[in-house]
Amino acid sequence: VREAVVSTQSTGTRECGWCEDAACKVAADLTSPDSQGITVTSTISYKALNTVFFFDGEGHRIGAFQFNRRGIFLTGCVRCPTPRPFPRSTRGAQVFEWNVRFEGRDLVLSVEGGEVWRHALAGECARAFSEIRAFAFADIGCSGTFSTAAGMVVGRHFGDSCGQSCEMS
What's the pTM value of the predicted model, to 2 decimals? Predict the structure, then answer.
């Protein structure tokens, strides 16, 4: 159930403490069985990465989930080619709705409502990523948006206008 659509403005800036400022994060327990994950609408290209940083309950960075048309990466755990049948645009980059979520120990990526990738996390990766309590975006670009869901608390520096950095008050 979507509650609001918010800009994915990059928080990977000096003003946001390179994503360390709590006001530049979204608090959410992404590993809860009730979590719907993160739903984003953005350009998916061959070069630029879509990046979501994950943080534990104390604000420490756990890692990052990154993907584009060439590959999927999860810091310290996963590095693999982007699977088929990844939706294809007729020319270059195209805007798609995508969702990244955890289902038990599985990390799942869906694009345009269809599951395109699933990876079972094991050992230290499963333990570390089970501690996610917040996330932030980088590299998604000014056209990106994400849909908030029940239980998400959006930091005050997220806004509905996109700039090169967080709008500090």
Answer: 0.81
